[in-house]
Design brief:
Elements: H1 14-37, H2 43-77, H3 97-102
Length: about 100
């Protein structure tokens, strides 16, 4: 099985990913109706693409909440008291979830 992250981009925090997806959703909700009216986009495709981006936002939100809930548990498992200097990652970024994927 190939390494899923062999072509990985530099990490982007889950918070930034969610913000980007929310901006894209708002853009689609604002622009697609005009494109449909102008005949540049079919209504069914516009609705499906907006639905997909809303799902991406929802998934990103769930991942962000899960990561926040995961942090104290991981800190305790690694023997950290949870003080910033003892956490196994920088608190301003997301925990290294990609490490768990590599095994």
């Amino acid at each position: 099985m190939p390494d899923l992250l062999s072509d990985a981009l530099p990490p982007v925090s889950l918070k930034d990913q969610l913000a980007c997806a929310q901006r894209e959703l708002a853009l689609r909700q604002r622009v697609y109706p005009r494109w449909v009216e102008a005949g540049k986009l079919k209504q069914s495709i516009a609705e499906e693409e907006i639905r997909r981006m809303a799902a991406i936002c929802q998934t990103s939100r769930i991942c962000l909440l899960s990561a926040k809930a995961w942090r104290p548990v991981t800190a305790r498992r690694r023997g950290c008291a949870g003080r910033p200097s003892e956490l196994p990652w920088d608190q301003t970024t997301d925990p290294p979830l990609y490490g768990a994927l590599r095994g």
